[in-house]
Specification:
This protein is mostly helical and about 525 residues long. It is built from 25 helices and 4 strands. A two-stranded antiparallel sheet has the order 1-2. A two-stranded antiparallel ribbon has the order 3-4.
Length: about 525
């Protein structure tokens, strides 16, 4: 045993070989070490030259054929296939393709697909739905990308109640479709239906809305910004769910607009988030998708706007403040405590919600019909005067009175009943005559208006009046809608009707404007 240990190892035997320093003979020597004259080079034939030239050429690899590429090629061939009315045949396949269907299943599929393309959605199996979705995401069945995106959304909406699994896949696939096709579409619907897809999609949608379209904010997206979990609120779980989801996004958009008017910068500009982070997004996961179309993944710019502490704090307070205002409007007992916001912001939100809530209640009840007897009598009197003017005979001699005598004869004109312009002039004359009467309620209404409200009413009667009102409201730190609401509130109390209808002065109140001009 000891003698074996003293023996050299295999590697040592190799390196201690007596042949390790033997020189290598040159190629010009033969086996005996004697130099040999170089052999004459054989002449190359034409065939050898052609062969060498072929070897030197760059070899083009054969295109790789995959199951997905075969599917897309077959889908393009069958893009216009239609089938007559067929019987439904069940179809279950994990990754459905055309080769997985029997003849009867194929007949049903092409009939069903044609129905879907025409906006009808018969009951069918999930595998048929996924097969059609695979066609759409691979570019088959549409020419305009926007149309392809809409088709995906319609299929999802039509069958998501029947197949909950669609929520797991369609949201991500539609988002991928929008990214690779560079579609400017709101992702709020995707986030709302697929809560598990929040994350990057929610951040992208938040940034898009808060920078360009605050009116498109949705409740589901905004919940990412709030530290207050409203889903655990008794008010939200009870009667307040619908109201909260409707008005919280509107309040955030209102404050964004208010801040922009008051400070000249919106919420994102006032509370800038962190830098843009490029995130790799893998495309169409778990789908039959040919990566030669759009690639394996895309880089998506994401701004972690939900991680901005001051902006997150403000959105959280707006959630709680809006819930408190809605509790008050809906007669719900109990209030959330320790909500700290500026007094003017609190007042603005209160007035806005009161106006919107009242408007929604009125719409739910239907239009209210209120007959003003005084106005009805005035309209009847005006109608009698106009009827008298229109039925005067052409050859009738006007009765000369002292009032007529003060008008020189050469200024008198005969109004023909069949001349529209002349009739319109007479109508204006009648209306002007009615304006000269006493209207104490008009005077009182004028006295109740603030200078800003009076200026807004007069501006609305002019061309581009709404633009002027927007400037007036911005200068005063308020909103045009709230200004209109205050004016209409005074009009209802003093005149018994709304003065501003939509965004213009109601026609019946135009004669009153000369009182406001004094």
């Amino acid at each position: 045993m000891t003698s074996e240990r003293n023996q050299p190892h295999f590697t040592e035997l190799v390196w201690e070989s007596t042949e390790q320093n033997v020189p290598i003979p040159p190629r010009s020597e033969g086996k005996s070490g004697i130099p040999v004259a170089p052999a004459a080079k054989p002449k190359k034939s034409l065939e050898d030259a052609v062969q060498i030239q072929l070897w030197d050429m760059e070899e083009k690899p054969e295109p790789v054929t995959t199951t997905e590429s075969q599917f897309v090629a077959r889908a393009r061939e069958l893009a216009g296939e239609k089938g007559p009315a067929a019987l439904f045949v069940p179809f279950k396949s994990y990754w459905p393709t055309y080769g997985h269907m029997t003849g009867a299943q194929s007949r049903w599929y092409f009939f069903w697909r044609d129905e879907v393309r025409q906006g009808r959605y018969p009951k069918t199996d999930l595998s048929y739905i996924f097969l059609h979705v695979y066609e759409l995401i691979n570019g088959v069945g549409w020419t305009d990308p926007q149309d392809g995106y809409c088709q995906l959304g319609l299929i999802w909406e039509a069958y998501r109640d029947q197949y909950k699994r669609l929520d797991q896949y369609l949201g991500g696939w539609m988002a991928d479709f929008a990214f690779v096709r560079k579609l400017e579409v709101p992702l709020s619907g995707i986030v709302a239906r697929s809560r598990g897809l929040a994350g990057d999609l929610a951040e992208i949608e938040l940034m898009r809305c808060l920078t360009a379209a605050p009116e498109q904010l949705t409740f589901e997206v905004l919940t990412v910004m709030s530290d207050y979990d409203i889903s655990k609120s008794k008010f939200y779980l009870g009667e307040g769910k619908e109201a909260a989801e409707r008005y919280i996004p509107l309040v955030v958009a209102l404050i964004d607009s208010y801040v922009a008017r008051k400070h000249g910068s919106n919420l994102v500009e006032m509370f800038p988030p962190g830098p843009v982070v490029m995130r790799e997004r893998y495309l169409f996961r778990s789908a039959v998708y040919d990566i030669s179309l759009y690639g394996y993944s895309v880089l998506v710019p994401v701004v972690r706007i939900s991680k901005s502490p001051p902006l997150r704090s403000l959105i959280t307070r707006l959630f709680r403040l809006t819930e408190n205002k809605l509790r008050e409007l809906m007669g719900y007992r109990g209030r959330l405590k320790d909500i700290k916001v500026d007094a003017d912001m609190d007042e603005l939100i209160g007035k806005y919600l009161q106006r919107e809530f009242r408007k929604a209640e009125q719409e739910a009840k239907g239009p209210a019909v209120v007959i003003d007897q005084r106005k009805l009598e005035q309209l009847q009197n005006d109608s009698e005067v106009v009827r008298t003017l229109l039925t005067v005979e052409d050859n009738a001699e006007p009765e000369i009175t002292e009032q007529h005598a003060i008008i020189p004869a050469e200024q008198a004109t005969v109004v023909e009943p069949d001349e529209p312009e002349a009739v319109a002039d007479d109508m204006d004359t009648v209306i002007a005559n009615t304006e000269t009467g006493d209207h104490p309620e008009w005077e009182q209404f004028n006295a109740e208006l603030t200078p800003l409200q009076r200026e807004a009413v007069l501006a609305l009667a002019e061309e581009d009046g709404l633009l002027t009102v927007n400037k007036l409201a911005a200068a005063a730190g308020t909103m045009p809608e709230l200004l209109f609401d205050e004016i209409n509130e005074r009009a209802m109390n003093l005149l018994g009707d709304l003065l501003i209808d939509g965004e213009q002065v109601a026609d019946e109140w135009i004669p009153m404007l000369h009182y406001l001009m004094r």
